[in-house]
Amino acid sequence: MPDANVIETAKDHFGGLVEQQLERVERLKDAPSPVDYAGVSPIVIGMLGGDGIGPTIAYESQRVLEQLLAGEVAKGKVEFRNIDGLTIENRAAKLQSIPDDVLEEVKQCHVTLKGPTHTPEKGDGWPNIESANVSMRKALDLFANVRPVRIPAENIDWTFFRENTEDMYALGSDGINVTADLAIDFRVITTQGSRRIINAAFAHAQKTGKERVTIVTKANIVKTTDGKFLDVAREIAEQYPSISWDAWYIDIMTAKLIDTARRSEFQVLALPNMYGDILTDEAAQIQGGVGTAGSANIGTAYAMFEAIHGSAPRMVIEGRAQYADPSSMVRAGAMLLDHIGFADLAQKVNMALDVCGQYERKAVTTGRDTGATTAEFGDYIVATVSDSNLKNTWEGYVYA
Ligand code: IPM
Ligand code: MG
């Protein structure tokens, strides 16, 4: 017979989580409208270096932004702010995934550019605090994780809309060891949370002239939560009659991304958090490695831009941090520029990245001393961004 106390404790735990999520749903129901940066002056950009290779690669992105926005800074329209303290040492000392004072400083900025931060896992020597990424996404309600992957030469132009606040991540640190043998985690999907990400994907498709949105779930197996995501997709799709949509399961989707005959047909993809986490690493690898991919975390009040990948502690331990590819953080910088209203500058950075990373490749990073250093590749990008012929550098280059 199971111990009645054990079951009661588990029920109480679950009850508490349900209460907390119901309150969250209420908050989601009256979401504010997004900030219009046209009316904001100065736009404050916070810079957070992070851990491991973070500060090294974030610095190169900062250089590109500072160069492109120098005029705006001089006019007082844009302000850069360095924010210290989002390091694993400080977070561990304070036992907070984002120390209160750091979060306060982040909230004083409109947008932030954040280097990767170390995510503690059970048994790695650090206190098992929640991931700083996950905390920041929750604290600032950054619900849309937008991850573009483009390979112009192969006609690949994918934009992933990964839901960023729900799914396995919402309660990832709130699972329960019911007994020594039984561990249970919880997965959360809400109507409101699904609507806003799926709507963002369709709106993006419409704005950028794309014809198709692909929804990715495993609704044949995870029937309740993924079933809801798919139901909401049907509802939203009706509001966009000019955009076609289809639904795929995550397993076949991972296969299709490496199907060279079909993959360029996908355009905009919307998916729950965990599938999005995994699929976007695969997509980034196809583009040239996770070091090439940037990630925008967008909410209504705030936005945070970062690399798609982690802090690469192995590279630091092996003494290779100075050979890390800074492209991911530079790409994040391009997304930041686009978000605050400098679409032309963003396009320039994207072109420079594609030219340096995929087409011209005068310097190549390999993550080791066989390739360029982070700083050398950063110099190459800075020089390419400033090249007045950039538009003509790549014949047939298409950017949307
Ligand atoms: C990402 C990362 C994060 C995530 C980690 C570092 C917590 O993998 O941004 O994709 O799982 O979301
Ligand atoms: Mg990931």
Overall mean confidence score, pLDDT = 94
Largest β sheet strand count, sense and barrel closure: 10 strands, mixed
The ligands found in this model are: 3-isopropylmalic acid, magnesium ion
**Global geometry:** globular
Radius of gyration: 21 Å
Secondary structure category: alpha/beta
Q: What order do the helices and strands follow? A: HEHHEHHEHEEEEHEHEHEHEEHHHHH
**How much helical structure, as a percent, in the residues?**
40-55%
- The name CATH uses for the topology is Isopropylmalate Dehydrogenase
Distance between the termini: 62 Å
CATH superfamily: Isopropylmalate Dehydrogenase
Integer count of domains: 1
The low-confidence parts are 395-400
State the total count of DSSP E strands. Answer: 12
Strand order, main sheet: write it out. Answer: 2-1-3-12-11-4-5-10-8-9
Residue share in β-strands: 15-25%
